[in-house]
Amino acid sequence: MKVSKVVLAYSGGLDTSIIVKWLIDTYGCEVIAYVGNVGQEEELDGIEEKAKKTGASKCYVEDLKEDFVENYVFQAIKANAIYENRYLMGTSLARPVIAKRQVEIALKEGADAVCHGATGKGNDQVRFELTFMALAPQLTIIAPWRIWDLDSRSKCFDYAKKHNIPVPVSKDKPYSMDRNILHISYEGGILEDPYNEPSEDMFILTKSPEKAPDRPTYIDIDFQQGKPVGLNGKKLSGVALMEELNRIAGDNGVGRIDIVENRLVGIKSRGVYETPAGTVLHVAHRDLESITLDRDTQHLKDRLAPEYAELVYNGQWFTKKREAMDAFIDDSQKNVTGTVRVKLYKGSCMAVGRKSDVTLYEPDIATFDESTLYDQKDATGFIRIFGLPYRVQSLLEKKRG
Q1: 172 is catalytic
Q2: Is residue 384 annotated as a catalytic residue, yes or no?
Q3: Pick the catalytic residue: 17, 67, 95, 101?
Q4: Strand positions, DSSP E, 234-373
Q5: Contact, 48 vs 61, CB < 8 A?
Q6: 10-residue block means of pLDDT along the chain (401 residues)?
Q7: Which of 170, 251, 365, 391 is 20 to 30 Å from 206 by CA-CA measure?
Q8: 92 noted as active-site residue
Q9: Is 15 annotated as catalytic?
Q10: Active site residue: 11, 15, 101, 269, which one?
Q11: Dist CA 317 CA 54 (whole Å)
Q12: Which of 17, 101, 124, 354 is catalytic?
């Protein structure tokens, strides 16, 4: 395969650090490193210099945080999308925004190939490559983990040592970590035994519930058409809101989960996640829908939410199906405007108040006291009609003996 110029999705981690050298040696090609900044924080320190020292001809460091939050994270919040009812998909949502910009840079640079460092066992290879195929099918896709003979982390470390390539982890650091503004994920190493409890010193975004404040913290979250727009009465950009909410919720021990999930490729994988802001926003948004959506629309959304989550998890962001589902979701959110009060306490997150100028909640109907809008006698006829099939079935069964 002839390749002259490759744009590599570069993180500075073990895999992509050695991939730069491997690409040059294998294809004799120019390698352009590309880093999509979706909130990795200190992981990005010195990354451009490191990429060039490793052999990259240049390194793009692109700030994608606003795009990531506004167009991917908040869309998943509006969809109530949670994979297998537990995973808030911090990695799943980040990959399409990163891969999209990678394609744009490849086209700008006149590259004939794109490359990623995802393994052949995981979901990320699918997420990157479906995006490449959807946006620029003419580009060659290089997936080193499915080609080279470096089929273990130990061999990757040995390769790095042989070629004097500095890597940020060692054989002594027994797990891998992926961070963005939505979450931090921890996988591999000691976590591969699902019975091993993660060490407390592993966590970065959240305090342990035991060390969280002894008094609850109350926060108000404002939504406009399903989108989070403010915190405690202050209007904030999406990025600023996520950063502040990560801090507040993290201080209260909110957002940790430890799960075994089903990967697309058929492997069960144990992952530990910190998603403080995302946890609070999912709870608050679904609660606001309870007073602003009619029953049938809400029930349809609830049925579609797992399918939307599966679509995102499986890397199918750039598809007609997702666009069609978003059209319904966006229309359903036209009246999801209001404020939700959330109580945070030692790892728990509970909606304790909600209000909206377009609420469908009518106290006169809901009250247990006397009501002028609802006559309880009307329920008799309703129940008789609603239960008619069961009455008929029972009568006929008795008649037949």
Answers
A1: no
A2: no
A3: 95
A4: 234-235, 256-262, 268-274, 338-345, 348-355
A5: yes
A6: 95 91 96 97 87 95 98 98 98 98 98 96 97 98 95 87 80 76 93 94 96 98 98 98 98 98 96 98 98 98 98 98 98 98 98 98 80 86 96 95 85
A7: 170
A8: no
A9: yes
A10: 15
A11: 32
A12: 124
